[in-house]
Amino acid sequence: MTARRKLIAGNWKMNGLKSDGLALARGIADRLKAGPAPACDLLVCPPTTLVALVAEAVSGSGLAVGGQDCHAKAGGAHTGDTAAAALADLGCRHVIVGHSERRTDHAETDAVVKAKAEAALAAGLIAIVCIGETLAQRDEGRTIEVNRSQLLNSLPDGATPDNAVIAYEPVWAIGTGRVATPAQAQEVHAAIRAALAERLGSDAAGRMRILYGGSMKPDNALELLALPDVDGGLIGGASLKVADFWAIAESC
Ligand code: PGA
Q1: What distance in angstroms lies between residue 124's CA and the mean position of ligand 1's atoms?
Q2: I want to staple 120 with a disulfide (CB 3.0 to 4.6 A). Which of 2, 127, 157, 205 is the partner?
């Protein structure tokens, strides 16, 4: 099996004003600079309003900065939206697309998510493509089918292990404190990798990173990150505290 370097990504969601956002970003960057660095890549995705400030503050620290969403079009008359190229221009290397909160709050379909991911790739960003089943879908025994379908319909054309990352986030685990068991996570991650192999070939599938997200915390990160097909985490709540985010990163 190919060694995949883990990615620990913080999704700050709609949290943070200038002062606390800067303090959080600097707190992580300072720990990185002080070393020893954890054995993973580290990324924070602040709200769009803080991206420029955070990117400037952590520049040169090794902490990557990303956006939480981008528009599917390169530019134009889209009031309130953010172009992928604008994120790249601010120093972003990544952008999350298709988070379940976007899919729910903004009715984003797989086709929309795919178009956004393709816009991200066109702007030179790494797309973090989120998928995940609801509790009702899990209870109906449709978990694998739902994730497979979301994956294959949201994956951008031209996806490679270098420009795309998958994030499996069971909707029932996001912000609920109810985390997937290691067996539940591994089962879905393995199914995602199998679907990736069908689409991209086994070499690319073996090198593509699949993150787990949904109530990952310092006290459950170790067992999740030790699973064979879990290549990192997309962290919401626990990414808002330097100590918690760092502790998760150190679990790699
Ligand atoms: P959570 O959020 O860690 O707060 O559950 C994860 C996410 O939505 O990315």
Answers
A1: 25
A2: 127
How far apart CA 213 and CA 173 sit, in angstroms, is 8
Task: Give yes or no: 145 in active site.
Answer: no
Position 156 pLDDT exceeds 60: yes
| Residue percentage of the chain with pLDDT more than 70 | 99
Residue in 215, 217, 248 to alter for ligand 1 test, most ligand atoms within 8 A of Cβ: 215
Residue nearest to atom 1 of ligand 1 (CA): 236
Phi, psi of 230 (to 5 degrees): -100, 115
CB-based contact 94:9 (threshold 8 Å):
yes
Q: Which residue minimizes the CA distance to atom 6 of ligand 1?
A: 236
Q: Could you read off the pLDDT of 103-127 as tens digits, one per residue?
A: 999 999 999 999 999 999 999 999 9
Distance from Cα 85 to the centre of ligand 1, integer Å: 26
The answer, yes or no, to whether residue 177 has pLDDT greater than 60, is yes
Q: How many CB atoms lie within 10 A of CB 212?
A: 32
Q: What is the pTM of this model?
A: 0.98
Cα 184 to Cα 32, 56, 151: the distances in Å are 32, 39, 17
- Structure letter (DSSP) for residue 176: T
Query: What is the model's pLDDT at position 210?
Result: 98
Ligand 1 centroid distance, CA of 183 (Å): 19
Peptide bond into 170 cis (omega under 30): no
169 in active site: yes
What the chain holds in terms of domains, given with CATH numbers, is 82-243 (3.20.20.70)
For residue 213 and ligand 1, the question of a CB distance below 6 A is answered with: yes
